[in-house]
């Protein structure tokens, strides 16, 4: 219930939220950056947002705030553009006006509570941790929501795209949603008409969970016939970082995009132009390296954004968009380019299993001499032939010594050893291996299975149970 909100949450609300539409022209709320810096500063000096509610402590805080040297250490901890202006704009007078709106807040909380709206700040257990990890001090101070907040912890596939779609787009969106649902994924989207609503409605019709990130009027949407039954069935959660009774603005729509991406494991672009919210959100995701981007292939002129995204220039370590064709059938097998490979502390190895960095004069231990069961002699030819690897099963492994110090199989084995030693159960499953070794998400599950089976046949690993779980012989 909203009347049980923590005092801390109420203090943050007073600083960052409107409570009725008449306030929009009267009060200047703290922006995301302004609150982010203020919260960092307060924490550094062991204050709480609730200390701003008391006039005497507010005065004491701003006596310290107004001393320029009080910001020296805190400024080093944030990376905001024009930070000095941000600091200058936060004044005692401005804060005093904002926190004096207690009566307006009480009326709004009662109204929103009757509509089923809940509120969480960044300390709430259900607040998405990925927001704090990825956005850091730019994380929304408050999230408003309605529905089952537990769903915010679901693994999800994001769907974004144009409001203007045709029957073919609808059919493709529904097909991809069905694939995602069949693989246990919820759907997250922005609640706009077009691709967003199609994806969300399709998932709900499939009796699967759905997360909607709204740009405007969460209060009105809480009573929408489109959502009401699903909210009651706990299959849906709608959230928004914006004033629950606010109107649509392009700026909020742009801001909303990042939350859809961050709440997903992968995000699908169904239809995009080269301008507008879908394009800006997709390119921001690529630049910020948030999640893998999957783009529906379409050569038509109305899909220029799709075509340009698939050839969008990206830096070496950024996630490159992955094309979805008509035969696409598995989100789990999509190339994952974001997985960062761990190194063994005892015996450091290069980040890439197939990175050609261990050349020497010995023909036995150089990568050029290693032949695996697919007939690949070098790392470069391995990458060229990677699409054919899954089809080649019959060639015998031919290598002088699989477990030489610099051999690929030995590097692979030592990394598995470390993972097992770090595991609470002293074992590792095939799904964990797939997630750990990004190379095999390129080469295919068959390649991973053959490498692991080689270790089992050589008694380097033991396999137990119908579900593939692996142990070390001496564990």
Broad shape: globular
- Average pLDDT across residues? 83
Query: What's the total helix number?
Result: 21
The Rg value, from CA coordinates, equals: 26 Å
Strand content: 5-15%
First-last Cα distance: 50 Å
Tell me the helix content. Answer: 40-55%
- As for the CATH topology of the largest domain, it is Rossmann fold
**Total domain units:** 3
The poorly predicted ranges are 339-352, 354-401
Query: Tally of extended strands?
Result: 12
Category from helices, strands and their pairing: alpha/beta
CATH architecture of the largest domain: 3-Layer(aba) Sandwich
CATH class of the largest domain: Alpha Beta
Strand order of the largest sheet: 1-2-6-5-4-3-7-8-9
Instruction: Work out the oligomeric state of the chains in this entry.
Output: single chain
Largest sheet, strands/sense/barrel = 9 strands, mixed
């Amino acid at each position: 219930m909203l009347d049980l909100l923590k005092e801390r949450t109420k203090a943050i609300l007073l600083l960052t939220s409107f409570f009725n539409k008449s306030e929009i022209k009267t009060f200047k709320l703290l922006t995301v950056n302004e609150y982010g810096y203020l919260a960092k500063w307060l924490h550094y000096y062991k204050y709480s947002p609730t200390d701003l509610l008391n006039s005497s402590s507010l005065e004491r805080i701003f006596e310290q705030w107004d001393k320029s040297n009080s910001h020296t250490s805190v400024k080093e901890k944030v990376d905001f553009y024009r930070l000095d202006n941000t600091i200058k704009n936060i004044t005692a007078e401005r804060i005093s006006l904002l926190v004096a709106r207690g009566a307006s807040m009480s009326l709004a909380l009662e109204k929103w509570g009757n509509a089923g709206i809940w509120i969480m700040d960044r300390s709430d257990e259900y607040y998405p941790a990925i927001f704090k990890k990825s956005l850091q001090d730019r994380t929304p101070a408050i999230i408003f929501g309605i529905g089952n907040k537990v769903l915010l912890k679901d693994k999800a596939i994001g769907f974004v795209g144009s409001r203007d779609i045709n029957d073919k787009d609808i059919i493709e969106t529904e097909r991809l949603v069905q694939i995602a649902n069949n693989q246990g994924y919820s759907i997250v989207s922005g609640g706009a008409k077009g691709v967003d609503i199609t994806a969300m409605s399709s998932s709900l019709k499939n009796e699967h969970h759905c997360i909607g990130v709204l740009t405007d009027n969460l209060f009105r949407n809480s009573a929408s016939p489109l959502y009401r039954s699903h909210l009651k069935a706990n299959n849906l959660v709608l959230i928004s970082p914006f004033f629950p009774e606010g109107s649509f603005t392009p700026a909020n729509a742009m801001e909303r995009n990042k939350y859809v991406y961050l709440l997903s494991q992968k995000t699908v672009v169904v239809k995009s132009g080269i301008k507008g919210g879908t394009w800006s959100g997709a390119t921001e995701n690529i630049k910020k390296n948030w999640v893998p981007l999957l783009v529906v292939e379409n050569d038509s002129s109305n899909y220029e954004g799709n075509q340009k995204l698939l050839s969008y220039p990206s830096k070496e370590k950024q996630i490159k968009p992955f094309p979805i064709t008509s035969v696409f059938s598995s989100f789990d097998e999509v190339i994952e380019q974001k997985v960062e490979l761990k190194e063994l502390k005892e015996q450091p190895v290069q980040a890439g299993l197939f990175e050609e960095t261990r050349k020497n004069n010995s023909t036995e231990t150089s990568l050029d001499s290693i032949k695996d069961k697919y007939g690949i002699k070098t790392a470069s030819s391995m990458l060229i032939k990677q699409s054919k690897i899954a089809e080649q099963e019959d060639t015998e492994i031919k290598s002088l010594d699989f477990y030489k110090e610099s051999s690929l199989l030995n590097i692979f084995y030592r990394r598995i050893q470390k993972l097992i030693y770090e595991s609470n159960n002293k074992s590792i499953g095939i799904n964990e291996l797939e997630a750990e070794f990004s190379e095999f998400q390129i080469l295919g599950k068959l390649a991973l299975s053959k490498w692991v089976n080689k270790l089992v046949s050589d008694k380097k690993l033991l396999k137990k149970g119908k579900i593939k779980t692996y142990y070390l012989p001496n564990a």
